Amino acid sequence: MSKYSQYRYNFTSSVNGLADINKTLLLLKNAMNKRKEPVPKHIGNQFYNIKISNEMEQVARKYYDVALQDLEVANIIPTNWIPTYNELKKIAETADNND
């Protein structure tokens, strides 16, 4: 593998990792909003939104884990610069609906 190909791969992996961190943050924000929404009357299950938001958080966790792996492999952006999953959850909780 040429040096060019190696750098290109590393930069692409870094960008993909940051995109997955962004997806994680968006999913956590959407899960928080879904948890607050009233359950539609035709559903009848009062825990429906909680179940959906929990599933969204599980998907967000998977995106986060994949993002960290991409960033570790690329070795361009230090992973200690990336907030932990729980820190991202706290950031999502402070988000406005306009964000």
Put simply, the count of helices is 3
In terms of quaternary structure, the protein is: single chain
Low-confidence stretches: none
E-strand count: 0
Radius of gyration (Å): 17 Å
Cα-to-Cα separation, first versus last residue: 42 Å
| Class derived from helix and strand content | mainly alpha
N-to-C SSE series? HHH
The major beta sheet can be summarized as: none
Fraction of residues in helices? over 70%
Strand content: under 5%
Structure report:
With 99 residues, the protein is an all-alpha fold. The chain is built from three helices and no strands. The chain has helices at 3-36, 48-74, 85-93. The longest helix is centred in the first third of the chain and has 34 residues, at 3-36.
Summarize the structure.
This protein is an all-alpha fold and 99 residues long. The chain has three helices and no strands.
SSE order and pairing:
Blueprint: H1 3-36, H2 48-74, H3 85-93
Helix pairs in contact: 1-2, 1-3
List its traits.
99 residues, 0% strand, mainly alpha
